[in-house]
Amino acid sequence: MAETSIRPEEAAHFGAMAGDWWDPKGSSAMLHRLNPVRLGFVRQAIDRHFGTSERDLRPLTGKSALDVGCGAGLLAEPLARLGAAVTGIDAAPELIEAARTHAGESGLAIRYVAGEVGRLDGAFDLVTALEVVEHVADPASFVRQLADRLAPDGLLVMSTPARTPWSRLLTITLAEGTGQIPRGTHDYDQFLSPDQLGETLAQAGLTVVETRGIAFGPGKGLHLSDDLSLNYLVAAVRAG
């Protein structure tokens, strides 16, 4: 029996958001704001790892991608448009149903699965888990499951809030406190520092090849930065 990384209360919390997941002004509004920034990092990581050009419209053609904690498809759909054969998996069946509906309306052939990533078979050229590790029961077990799904020459991309007072202030006190993020979405005790996540990845046989922050500024909004104190992304590969 595969180890479980699912926390039922987390699945229920996010499943309740399925109805307006694709509404940029709904309960997932902050994810809609984050998504272009995250996609920028993912695209840069793809080009560096697979040797593609930023001018390529479909750099993932012929490659497989797995989006873990896919929600209703905010990342899975762009990955499909980049040419990948995409599988999305989420612990909340309500989100998977919403994802299937939206993909169908968008004319995208994406395989969506409700359940536990540890029970999936196969290996994928690209594995993504954005804003997920802070919601799982056991981060070390979860990262091992991601590593198990990664092809030998594959690329893993993760993102998560930083474990800093600044992140707690903006993410929980302000964003949740003012309703920009539904209350109860985050637990600061689950946040990981870049060093903690890097060590967890190393224990799973992976090496971090790039780390970038997602910062916020009044003039720039959310943007990629060298400042890792709010939120950050990592790209990792199998240790050589």
Automatic annotation (TrEMBL):
<keyword id="KW-0831">Ubiquinone biosynthesis</keyword>
<keyword id="KW-0808">Transferase</keyword>
<comment type="function">
    <text>O-methyltransferase that catalyzes the 2 O-methylation steps in the ubiquinone biosynthetic pathway.</text>
</comment>
<dbReference type="GO" id="GO:0032259">
    <property type="term" value="P:methylation"/>
</dbReference>
<feature type="binding site">
    <location>
        <position position="90"/>
    </location>
    <ligand>
        <name>S-adenosyl-L-methionine</name>
    </ligand>
</feature>
<dbReference type="InterPro" id="IPR010233">
    <property type="entry name" value="UbiG_MeTrfase"/>
</dbReference>
<keyword id="KW-0489">Methyltransferase</keyword>
<protein>
    <recommendedName>
        <fullName>Ubiquinone biosynthesis O-methyltransferase</fullName>
        <ecNumber>2.1.1.222</ecNumber>
        <ecNumber>2.1.1.64</ecNumber>
    </recommendedName>
</protein>
<keyword id="KW-0949">S-adenosyl-L-methionine</keyword>
<dbReference type="InterPro" id="IPR029063">
    <property type="entry name" value="SAM-dependent_MTases_sf"/>
</dbReference>
<dbReference type="GO" id="GO:0008168">
    <property type="term" value="F:methyltransferase activity"/>
</dbReference>
<feature type="binding site">
    <location>
        <position position="38"/>
    </location>
    <ligand>
        <name>S-adenosyl-L-methionine</name>
    </ligand>
</feature>
<feature type="binding site">
    <location>
        <position position="69"/>
    </location>
    <ligand>
        <name>S-adenosyl-L-methionine</name>
    </ligand>
</feature>
<dbReference type="Pfam" id="PF13489">
    <property type="entry name" value="Methyltransf_23"/>
</dbReference>
<comment type="similarity">
    <text>Belongs to the methyltransferase superfamily. UbiG/COQ3 family.</text>
</comment>
<comment type="pathway">
    <text>Cofactor biosynthesis; ubiquinone biosynthesis.</text>
</comment>
<feature type="binding site">
    <location>
        <position position="130"/>
    </location>
    <ligand>
        <name>S-adenosyl-L-methionine</name>
    </ligand>
</feature>
